[in-house]
Amino acid sequence: MLFNSLPFLVFAAVFLGLWPVMKKRNTSKWWWICIMSFVFYGWWDWRFLFLLLGTGTLDYICGHLLLKQPSLKRMWLWLSLGGNIASLLIFKYSLWLATAADQLFHAYGINTHFGESVPEFTLVLPVGISFYTFNSMSYTIDLYRGKARPADNLLHFFAFISFFPHLVAGPIIRARDILGQLRADKRIHSLEILNGIKTCIWGFFQKMVLADNLAVFVNQQFNDVQRVNDGFTWWICMFAFSFQIYFDFNGYSSIARGIAKLCGIHFRLNFNHPYLADSFGNFWQRWHISLSSFFRDYVYIPLGGNRRSPLRNLFNRWFTMLLSGLWHGANLTFIAWGALHAAYLSLEKLFKHVTAPRLLKRTAVFLAVVLAWVFFRAENITEALHILKHMLSLDGTWRVKAVLAGNVSIWLLVSAGLEFGSAWPLSSRVRNNTVVQVIFWSLLVGVIIYFRGPEQQFIYFQF
């Protein structure tokens, strides 16, 4: 059930329409969240509900036992982490690992068939498995560290983990941020409802108008990578993809935050104008904030962060970024993407005392991020190297007029204007003008209706 589909609009209307009634009674509120969230998730494939229920139940029990049995709490923590990691390995990485093992053995003349022995049920990736497993893992880790209050019961835990706005594509939320809000009988003010509606509209605009229109040009080039030997076309394509993935994912996050606001629940900001970053460290403080903070808090800092020797700090950085790349999918391209960002961060650390104008730093960071996106979007390393070869060389026909004559140039200008123009915010006089606000949001709804692109699945659904 896509956010940008008619079934979801009906589903959301039913959920939100009955929410004021359900939330008045403590028990019915939790049941309403769980039942409707399970319907939402089961819309894709009801069989994977058992995976969600299984890993969630394991984490709830482990969380309960590590508090009841302090002497064994490390064992219960590792059981919880092991269950979640095992589900990821089986459903997300088993075929890739088995195929890689076959290739390795075949190189040495040993005939193996590990790939053929992978169970058929693991060949379909459960939607959002990387997101809800991280949500669930954070619960037991925070209980172990004494940084979270446990869920009152299993029903409350599943309301936290399965709350549908964040379930399949984030943002990654933590129990200590959400359970307290769900427990509270908070009155939802009209201003909060208005802000929720506006946040949803902004999200739909980013996804359906900007991302989906940019996707048309991007998909055309990537449908036959070897056919395109023009450096200019690839630069325009990768600029388009950079904004496509940003507005696609930020659009989803905005819709999720807007729906949560309508329920009186606050999700933390997941994107904060990342293409305005003036350093690579700053980029990761602005991009997919819930994931980058997860790896920072649960991987980088526990490894020692930057408190160890320079060599150990280098290892921590590379390990965290490579793991971040692997989280995105079972493909060497994602690992290469993570490695490239690790290299960026390492070089930045090495030359941290070098000064340069802020505009120059922003431009350099943005262009480097665009080059890294090549590995993220390409199907394989061969495609990525083909694209980079033409982007970084002066060969090819450089079909400037042909490329700019298409619609992509319009959507690129709009996208760049919104992102880079945000460095100069509107005055409070304009922002607080009721007439301006009504005209602006009404126009935005009209643009969504009449200028939306061909319907596309959200990019991060595949993770």
Structure description:
The chain folds into two domains: 6-185, no CATH class; 191-462, no CATH class. The longest helix has 35 residues, at 73-107. It has helices at 6-22, 26-42, 49-68, 73-107, 129-145, 154-162, 164-167, 175-183, 190-222, 231-262, 280-286, 289-300, 310-328, 332-350, 358-377, 381-391, 400-404, 408-421, 428-431, 434-450. It has 463 residues and is mainly alpha-helical.
Structure in a nutshell:
This protein is an all-alpha fold.
- How much of the sequence is in beta strands? under 5%
Radius of gyration: 23 Å
How much helical structure, as a percent, in the residues? 55-70%
**SSE string:** HHHHHHHHHHHHHHHHHHHH
Number of strands: 0
Average pLDDT works out at 88
Low-confidence stretches: none
Q: Would you tell me the structural class of the helices and strands?
A: mainly alpha
Terminal-residue CA separation: 16 Å
Cα shape: globular
The number of helical runs is 20
Number of domains: 2
List the SSEs and their pairings:
Elements: H1 6-22, H2 26-42, H3 49-68, H4 73-107, H5 129-145, H6 154-162, H7 164-167, H8 175-183, H9 190-222, H10 231-262, H11 280-286, H12 289-300, H13 310-328, H14 332-350, H15 358-377, H16 381-391, H17 400-404, H18 408-421, H19 428-431, H20 434-450
Helix pairs in contact: 1-2, 2-6, 3-4, 3-5, 3-6, 4-5, 6-8, 9-10, 9-18, 9-20, 10-15, 10-16, 10-18, 12-13, 13-14, 14-15, 15-16
